[in-house]
Amino acid sequence: MANIIDGKQISTDIKNEVQKEVIELKDKGIEPCLAVILVGENPASQVYVRNKKRACEYCGIKSLSYELPESTPEEELLALIDSLNLDPACNGILVQLPLPGHIDEDKVLLRIDPKKDVDGFHPYNVGLLSIGKAKLKACTPAGCIELIKRSGVDITGKKCVVVGRSNIVGKPVGMLLLAENGTVITTHSKTKDLAGVCRQADILVAAIGKPKFITGDMVSEGVTVIDVGINRMENGKLCGDVDFDSVEPKAEYITPVPGGVGPMTIAMLMKNCLTACRMQNGLE
Q: How many angstroms separate the CA atoms of 63 and 254, rounded?
């Protein structure tokens, strides 16, 4: 029987830590501030933005919201980012993805000041991550590391297998595991004998975007499993990239879906916003 890693509780612990530090900053006359930009009316994006506003309120971080119509020209969005880059009262800028088809996502992400890039997606911050010096780290991968460490699992020397090589999760989580002295193998759709490679893992991170892809015969006894996937089944229920029912009996630690990695993304966003504010005020 595996230990179930409670992402809801760990994310709350992190938000409470952020809340405490925000109070200390406010006592010094510094108010952390996050700007969130939403273009269009994507229902899932609206939910994410609402959750981010709630998290800001909980942590005591000031929230600026810009909800732009679907037809907003790219230049108008870039001009808004430019103005927020120059605003000393704004510490973090987050543009909710996906953007409408007529807007170049890469151009938009590049426009954000790397010091205000609380998503950790700017190539400058990705470069710092690759040499182990990033302060603003991609939120979901950073959340995965917190789940592992706060569950009492030591990454040092462990064989870490990452299933998936996306720029959003797979690559950065591999670099973060390496920074924690893990021995990392990144696998993907072209990997030969994927099941055999997965069975080598002491720590397995599944981020491939395929429902219940990792099954019990693909893992070894005592593995720690972090399931980044969020997939909706035909019956409307959520499931991860891991077949929980067959993997859980063999795992020592495992994250559920929902309630595992999901809550961590916004908690780490709050932590990044706090870090950005401290950096911009000469405190980091």
A: 33
